[in-house]
Write a structure and sequence with these properties.
It contains 10 helices and 12 strands. With about 300 residues, it is α+β, with helices and mostly antiparallel strands. The structure holds cytidine-5'-monophosphate (C5P).
C-alpha cells in the first residue's frame, strides 16, 4: 500500500487590535525606549493572516487598510516569520503571507504588532513546531513592544517597554467606539513629542493606578471610563490638534470616557452597552468631525488559529 504524507499547506490566524486603558510613560532609557506601565485590552477588531508554503517570500494585503501596509522586509510580519525560522532552524521556511487588514495602520491600535503575532502563531502551526508559549512570547518581544500582548490578548498589565506582561483581575465586557483618522501617526514621533513637552520636568517611575485596578475588578464601565488615562495623549494632540474636537464630541454625545488610543491618532470611547455604542457611532458620524468610526467589544482572545493547517 502507498501512503502519501499530508503536509500542511496554509494556516490562517486572526489577531486582535488593542487599546491602552492606561498608559503611563516614564523616563527615556538608554536603549531609546521609555519605561512604561500600561493596561492593555484586546478588542474585537481583527487582522486575518494566512501563511502558505511558497518558493519565494511575499506579502499581499487586502482589506480597507491594504494601501498603507509596508511591503517586503519592512513588514513586521515578514520579520516575524524569518525570526521564527532562524530561531527554530526551519529548513523549508519560505512562506507567502496574506494579510486581510482591518486594523488601522499607524493608528495606535497595534495593527503591525497583531500581524507579527499572527505570523508567529501561524508559522508555528504550519511548520509543526508546537512551541512553548513562553518561548513564543520571548520572540514576540524581540519584534516589538506590543507584539507579546497581541499574542496573549485579554487584559494585561505591560511593563518594561510594554513587552513584559502580568495578569490583571478583571471582569465584564466593554463596548468601545473608535474614531479613526485617515492618516496615521508614527509612534517614535509621538514619543519624541512626549520628550519635548516634558523636558526639564521630573518624570516619575510609572505604575498602574489603584483607580484602574479597582475599575477593572468591579466590571463597571462608568468606573473604567473615569479611570482612562494616557500620557501620550497630550503629545498626540500637540501633533494633531484636530483630535481635541473629536474627544470633545464623543464626550458631549455621552461616552463614559474618551482617550487617545496608544500613540494615536485613533480616539477610543467607552460606552455602557452595544446600543449605546451604536448610538455614539451614529452621532459621531453625523457630527462631521470624525473621518470614520467603528465599534468593538473587549476583552477578546489573542492571536488564534482560524483555519488550517489545510492539506495538500
Ligand atoms: O517597540 P516598538 O517597535 O513598537 O517601538 C517603536 C518605537 O516607539 C521605538 O523605536 C521608540 O522610539 C518608541 N517607544 C518608546 N518607548 C516604548 C515603546 C516604544 O520610546 N516603551
Amino acid at each position: 500500500m502507498n501512503f502519501v504524507t499530508a503536509t500542511p499547506r496554509s494556516v490562517t490566524v486572526r489577531a486582535p487590535a488593542k487599546v491602552n486603558c492606561e498608559l503611563r510613560v516614564g523616563p527615556l532609557g538608554r536603549a531609546g525606549f521609555h519605561e512604561l506601565s500600561t493596561v492593555f485590552m484586546a478588542v474585537g477588531l481583527y487582522d486575518e493572516v494566512t501563511v502558505t508554503h511558497a518558493d519565494r517570500w511575499s506579502v499581499t494585503t487586502t482589506g480597507p487598510y491594504a494601501a498603507h501596509v509596508p511591503d517586503g522586509e519592512d513588514n513586521l510580519a515578514v520579520r516575524a516569520a524569518r525570526l521564527l525560522a532562524r530561531h527554530m532552524r526551519v529548513t523549508r521556511s519560505v512562506v507567502s503571507i496574506r494579510i486581510d487588514k482591518h486594523i488601522p495602520v499607524a493608528g495606535g491600535m497595534a495593527g503591525g504588532s497583531a500581524d507579527a503575532a499572527a505570523v508567529l502563531v501561524a508559522c508555528d502551526h504550519l511548520w509543526g513546531l508546537r512551541m512553548d508559549r513562553e518561548e513564543l512570547l520571548d520572540l514576540a518581544a524581540r519584534l516589538g513592544s506590543d507584539v507579546p500582548f497581541c499574542l496573549a490578548g485579554g487584559i494585561a498589565i505591560g511593563s518594561g517597554r510594554g513587552e513584559r506582561l502580568a495578569p490583571v483581575l478583571a471582569r465584564g465586557t466593554y463596548h468601545w467606539v473608535f474614531a479613526l483618522s485617515s492618516e496615521g501617526l508614527s509612534t517614535p514621533t509621538v514619543f519624541a513629542e512626549f520628550d519635548r513637552l516634558t523636558v526639564g520636568s521630573r518624570i516619575a517611575q510609572p505604575e498602574p493606578s489603584p483607580a484602574m485596578m479597582t475599575a477593572l475588578r468591579s466590571g463597571d464601565p462608568e468606573a473604567l471610563g473615569d479611570a482612562l488615562v494616557n500620557d501620550l495623549q497630550e503629545p498626540a494632540l500637540s501633533l494633531r490638534p484636530g483630535l481635541r474636537a473629536v474627544l470633545d464630541a464623543g464626550l458631549e454625545f455621552g461616552a463614559l470616557g474618551g482617550i487617545v488610543s496608544g500613540s494615536g491618532p485613533t480616539v477610543a470611547f467607552l460606552t455602557g452597552s452595544s446600543e449605546h455604542a451604536l448610538d455614539l457611532c451614529v452621532a459621531l458620524t453625523a457630527s462631521g468631525v470624525v473621518d470614520q468610526v467603528t465599534r468593538a467589544k473587549g476583552p477578546v482572545h489573542g492571536a488564534q488559529v482560524l483555519a488550517g493547517p489545510s492539506r495538500d
